[in-house]
Amino acid sequence: MTTTSRGTTPPFSSVRHALQAIETIATSGSPRAFIVGTARSGKTSLLREITNLLADLETAFTEYRPGPSAASVPPSRVLVVDDLHLLDEEHLDQIGGRALDPTAGLIVASRPWPRPDGLTAIWRRLEQDAPAVVLGQLSRSDALTYCQVHGRAVSSACLTQILAATGGISWLATRALSLHDDRDCVDDPEHSGLHLLLQDEIAHRLNTADAQLRHLVELVSIDPHANLGSIESVSAVDALIAQGHAEGLLLRNGRPVPVVRSAVLASTPAHRLAELRAETSADRSSLISHDDASAPLLQQALNVWSKGDLDGAAELVEKAEMAAGSPNSDLAADLAAAIWAERGLPLISSQSYLARPTDDPASSVRALLVHAGAGFPDRFHDRQSVAQSPTTLGVALQLFEAGLRDSVKQQPPASALSSLVQASELYSASKSVGPIAELPAVVAAGVAMGAGELQTAQAVIDAAVSAEQGGPWARPRLLGWQAFVAIRNERPHEAREALRQAEELVSPQSSRTQLLLATIRITLARRYGDTQSLTMAWQAALTASRNVDVSLYSLLPLGSLIDAGARLGDSVTLAPYLAHGLEIVRRLGYPPLWSNHLWWAGVQQGILLNKPGSLAPHAQALVAAAPHSSVAAAMAQAGGVWVAVLGGKVDAGAVEAAARGLAAAGLSWDGARLAAHGAGRLPDDRRASSRLMACARELHPPEVIRHAAGSTESSPTPSHEGASLSEREHDVAVLILQGKTYAEIGQAIFISPRTVEHHVASIRRRLEAKSRSDLIAKLRLTIGGTEDR
């Protein structure tokens, strides 16, 4: 019998959940299990833990070595096999024979690829006894466990960036966490130094990989929607994707994670990159009919458009003069409409299809999307369905059309959202990189938020980002919407990371997406910043907004802008935008899924500016919509309670119910503000006031970054010379380091300025700070490394 000494470091790499299965495996009558995971995901470590436990239990086991027959190991002794995928057919047959005996102990570990028939037979037989132990991608909790075990401190923001860059691939995430040093983040918040270290290791793995696998990774790193026609067959592509996933270079769907993509771009010679880019452009060429004289110009237009050069693409489309009936006319209309939409001019986008009417089913759906966005229902046209062989893209667009039409009804069916979610999933699966004025994921997320389904909105956008929906041109917009939805979901760190990525990719010519990103910065400042940061973000957004008109799909971000403007006392600048938005929903018949949030923005503007007269029409509209919309009902109830609170009539129970109703409708931050307003007007009822403040903090937690290594989030923060800060003192301290005043700190974490003053005095005593400058210096030493940079 071969035994191993007990290791001092627990296994990691996504085995946290698997550790729970170790005791079950080791203590069963006949220990049997199939462990599967990608390269360096912790399979061997997990086997070592199991054999250690078997040794402690005095259970006999043998570690398999090729050579002696597996048949010579008696059933009572557990046979432990590592790297099953490396064994030849003869040895797999030996182990397969043992797997057929349910009384024979057998624990094996393998990569998910290759999968010869003998290995698959073993897998299936062992799964009849117990579910396979799958070591998949690294989760956030896995990473926190690793940090705790290894005594490492990584801020929440850094952890979010690391998991995003590595995609949670086990070996990459583990390596990144082991190389991470908080001191580097002071001058390198984007972790560029860490990325360089990882890129070197990735480049080494690519250099030693199979040539075809390396070629595949290069292609999908240049363009995730690359044409893979140069690979001999679909089955060969599938096998290479499975191999890339098993090697820890690709996600299961064949997508490269950001750090792998950047490693390919950084390590590939310039001439080779040019060859790869030429190869990946073949899929865009397939959109064009090359029998038409316009084909060369349209090909160039598609290529420059996909890189974000809207002006260059528009110039080429305009040069490609086509006669009526040209086979490329529909594509030209689609491209022109997409360009004008991204320029932020939905009216002209709609006119593009009036100038080039289309009978093509796919282009007709894209035209409907544009006309709805501009608010022109009279331009909707019912078309007869033509029997044809279904394609993934065709079905996606059919569902998109059905969901969009349903979403603009006064009483939309529940199927509207499900159709749009399905459309987004299938559109991603189609790998379409063609021009479209708005992405299915964005429309689906907008409708989900209109229905109060924030989790659905987040799931749709996250899936689209992961699948690279629409191709490279679409990524900045998807990331922007991912950030916007994350803010609504009270996930500011994720929002900041998505915003950072979008800012790196967005084209200066993409006015619509530039305004979206400016709106996200304003919303973060409004909810988590101070007046100074809000003012700066507001000025930048005003510049971005001057070149963009309102569309149906921008109404949600417009609501955030209106709220921020009202907070700064400005209701004039955005008045034309609000009026235009209201005109769009009026022309569409006031569909509640698209109208409610705009009306709510009008109510909030009236409250913030103390203008009851201006909020009345919006409040009345919400009341009218309430019988057919639970979101409108929650808004109408909260609006009435809010006005009563501002008038000095505070019913604590009604305030809390209204606040929680807003949260259930996807408006947690608004609910927190309502609860805080109610608490502030109950100075003589401390119990009710405290309950409402607790409700406010629950609905909108403060953005505070803590060390990951603590046993719980509520653990005291280690402080200067052995002192420790309570959780609330830590929150206050972080906000002090951000330069906030007592009033701003109170607004951020829903406590009174006087309570802030008490906390600051307590912190000073704990740190023995003799002055404000001394306090700041000591706070920087003790918790400075956990600030949200």
Describe this protein's structure:
With 789 residues, the protein is mainly α. It has six domains: 16-135, 3-Layer(aba) Sandwich (Rossmann fold); 140-280; 285-388, Serine Threonine Protein Phosphatase 5, Tetratricopeptide repeat, CATH 1.25.40; 390-473; 591-699; 717-786, Orthogonal Bundle (Arc Repressor Mutant, subunit A), CATH 1.10.10.10. It is built from 39 helices and seven strands. Strands 2-3-4-1-5 form a five-stranded parallel sheet, sandwiched between helices. A two-stranded antiparallel sheet has the order 6-7. A hairpin with a 5-residue loop joins strand 6 (717-718) and strand 7 (724-725). The longest helix is centred in the middle third of the chain and has 18 residues, at 511-528. The radius of gyration is 29 Å and the shape is globular. This is Isoniazid response ATPase/transcriptional regulator IniR. Pfam families: GerE. Residues 718-783 form the HTH luxR-type domain. Keywords: DNA-binding, Transcription, Transcription regulation. GO terms for molecular function: DNA binding.
Could you tell me the number of beta strands?
7
Secondary-structure-based class equals: mainly alpha
Largest sheet: 5 strands, parallel
Spatial strand order of the main sheet:
2-3-4-1-5
Protein name: Isoniazid response ATPase/transcriptional regulator IniR
GO molecular function: DNA binding
GO biological process, one term: regulation of DNA-templated transcription
Domain HTH luxR-type: 718-783
